Amino acid sequence: MAKITRKPAPRKAAVPKKKAKAATAKPKPAKKSLKAIRPWTPAEVREVFSRFQKANPEPRGELEHVNPFTLLVAVVLSAQATDAGVNKATRALFEIADTPQKMLDLGEERLRDYIKTIGLYRTKARNVIALSAKLLSDFGGEVPRTRAEIESLPGAGRKTANVVLNMAFGEHTMAVDTHVFRVGNRTGLAPGKMPLEVELGLEKVIPAEFMLHAHHWLILHGRYTCLARKPRCEVCLINDLCRWPEKTV
Questions:
Q1: Which of 28, 159, 193, 240 is flagged as catalytic?
Q2: Is 60 exposed, middle or buried (CB count within 10 Å of its CB: 0-12, 13-18, 19+)?
Q3: What radius of gyration, in Å, describes the C-alpha atoms of the chain?
Q4: pTM of the full predicted structure?
Q5: C-beta separation of 51 from 237 below 8 A
Q6: Distance between CA atoms of 94 and 70, rounded to whole angstroms?
Q7: What counts of helices (H) and strands (E) characterise the chain?
Q8: Is residue 21 among the annotated active site residues?
Q9: Is the dihedral of CA 234, 42, 178, 76 positive or negative?
Q10: 102 part of the active site
């Protein structure tokens, strides 16, 4: 019987593997910690606030009020709310309740009707009634003039106390809200992980002659120029001095 031989099947040609594309994008440099960035010199800090002063000699807070009590109430209501939203609610409220006694006479339920467009209005109404009662029982119906006493009022914290002391009584306090916190860190003026750290840092570096209006200048700068998402570096008064590594000019 004839021997049958089978030819091996031809091997398929190996398909050459595609070469990986050479990486062209350069790795992004690691962000510098603001703590590691060159600190501001006293002359630079003075220059910054001189520019703010020249551009806006008499800055004003945007919360509408008629006396220290209504300022206190407005600041308490402004937590996690916009000044514009608070003003819209308080214009009518302050026409009929501009003292602690009138606020108590109004009562919590009616107060809620005035401020129901403001976030957390139920809690805030409860606090405003409670602080009005405490002002009458402990402070003769007057807003106290020390930070500790203001902080003892329901709904009032350190920022509230600093705003009231500055705007109502002309104290050289630094109220650190979200805007001041951002500007202090982003510019490198007063880096800090907590608002108190930024507050104390700003008080340390800002010359006394600018302290009365300093927190207003910084708030307005953060609200209208040094925005959280798209800072307007091209129109910033201090862009040549700012230490922010990501500034666009």
A1: 159
A2: exposed
A3: 29
A4: 0.82
A5: yes
A6: 7
A7: 11, 0
A8: no
A9: negative
A10: no
The two three-digit tokens of residue 104, written as one number: 């108590």
Query: Quick check: 247 and 239 in contact, CB under 8 A?
Result: yes
User: Catalytic pick from 17, 88, 177, 247?
Assistant: 177
Q: What is the pLDDT of residues 63-102, one digit of tens each?
A: 999 999 999 999 999 998 999 999 999 999 999 999 999 9
Residue with tokens 């501001």: 40
- CA dihedral for 179, 164, 158, 121, sign (positive or negative): negative
| 175-192 pLDDT tens trace | 999 999 999 999 999 999
104-147 pLDDT, tens digit each: 999 999 999 999 999 999 999 999 999 999 999 999 999 999 99
- Is 184 buried (19+), middle (13-18) or exposed (0-12) by CB count in 10 A? buried
d(CA 223, CA 84): 13
Query: Residue 88 — φ and ψ, nearest 5°?
Result: -60, -35
Name the region of 171 (left: φ>0; alpha: ψ -120 to 50; beta: rest): beta
Q: List CB contacts of 24: < 8 A, sequence separation 6 or more.
A: none
CA 236, CA 227: separation in Å to the nearest integer?
11
Query: Quick check: 154 pLDDT over 70?
Result: yes
